[in-house]
Each structure stands twice: as C-alpha cells, then as structure tokens.
Specification:
Strand content: 15-25%
Shape: elongated
Number of strands: 5
Helix content: 40-55%
C-alpha cells in the first residue's frame, strides 16, 4: 500500500511535523529522506530493506557508492543526496564548535568526530586547534595511514600549531577495526605529542579514538 493511503497519523512526514523528528524510528527517518518508493514497494519498505542490508543507519551513511547504488530503488541521485546530508551535518557541527568553549560541549565534539572519522577504511589523524578560550580556530587532517597505523610526526604537528597560533589542541583518530580502545602505541604517541607541544606552551586537552559510533576520550580515561 502506498504511503499516501496510510492514515495521516502514521505517515512519516506528517508524524514528524506533528510530533517532532525525535519520535520517528530509523526506518521512518530514512523513508522521509528517500521520499518515494518503487513499483510494489513504498519508501518505508525501501528504508527497511536498506537498514536490513547495512545493519544500521551509521552503516547506511558510510556505504560507498557502489554498494549503495546496487540496491533496488537506489541510485546516483540518492547517493549524492546522502553525501550532501552528511556534509551539511559535519559543517553544522563544525560551525557550532567555533562558537563556544569546546570543553563545555563534550557531546558536540564527540558527534563531530564520529561524523568525520567513523567508518573510514584507513586511519586518519586530525587536530582541532584552539585559542586561549578553547574556541576552535581550525580542524585539520594531519596524517593518514594504512588499515593499522598512521605515521604521526610531532615536528609537523608543532608547525601547524604555530601556524594557527594555537593555545591548545585536541587530537583524534579512528580505528578502522571499529574497536575504540587505545593501543600502547596510541598512549606513547599521545605522551610524545604532549611533551613536544609543551615546549611551545600548547596544551593537549584530549585525544579521542573513534570506532563503531563511539568516541573514547583519553582525558576521561586519565590517559592525558
């Protein structure tokens, strides 16, 4: 049955407008994004199939073009829309980070990092450069590596900190394995960066590891 034949209170778009987006299921939210179905299947049916195929919303949004477009009802246009939604979310969170003290918004930092780093096929190491009031100056991808490690050079990090005239920095990198646990190498690297940056009076406030929708904080684990 087409969604237009459903009771108004059960239609995803009308439900969103009446009760708010937070009341919708993942399937309903995805159906609104898809807008239309195909012959014999509504947008809700397609949304349900997408979630079943990829496992969850995170994996749907992380899907590459080939795997996404090969599914019935999907295509280049919907894939492009999906990427646009992700980029708008990242930019919105990035703008919010610039407006206030990041140390007062730990969940905002986590959301930004998860959107930026989760489900990347290789390790990416980024720095969030902060001023003396912990406002974001810039966010940069500093290094990227293989599936297992990235080569991070303290000297290059110091150059970027000086370039931005940063007073503090937050580091983050992803674990492509999905396991958000710090390795011994992660701990050693963090201490090396902290000691190197201390020589130019730049504080390392935190280091996050992102994996499977989780952003683990070194500071919260007393590892900084």
């Amino acid at each position: 049955m087409a969604i237009t034949n459903w009771p108004i209170s059960e239609r995803p778009r009308e439900k969103l407008l009446q009760k708010g987006a937070s009341t919708l299921s993942d399937t309903e939210l995805l159906a609104i994004f898809l807008r239309t179905g195909i012959s014999g299947k509504s947008a809700v049916d397609l949304a349900r199939e997408l979630l079943s195929h990829f496992g969850n919303l995170t994996n749907v949004f992380a899907a590459n073009q080939v795997s996404f477009c090969q599914l019935p009802g999907m295509g280049i246009a919907k894939y492009a829309q999906l990427q646009a939604v992700l980029e708008m979310a990242r930019r919105t969170l990035g703008e919010e980070l610039k407006c206030g003290n990041v140390m007062n918004s730990p969940n905002l930092v986590r959301d930004f990092l998860r959107l930026s780093l989760a489900n990347k096929p290789h390790e990416v190491f980024i720095g969030i450069f902060l001023d003396a009031k912990n406002h974001t100056i810039a966010t940069e991808e500093l290094f990227n590596g293989t599936l297992t490690q990235a080569s991070v050079y303290p000297r290059e990090v110091i150059k970027r900190a000086l370039y931005h005239n940063a007073a503090a920095i937050i580091f983050a990198h992803n674990h492509p394995s999905g396991i958000a646990e710090p390795s011994h190498a992660d701990k050693v690297l963090t201490q090396s960066l902290k000691q190197a940056l201390a020589l130019i009076d730049v504080k390392v406030l935190d280091h996050f590891i992102v994996g499977n929708g989780i952003a683990l904080s070194f500071a919260e684990q007393d590892l900084i």
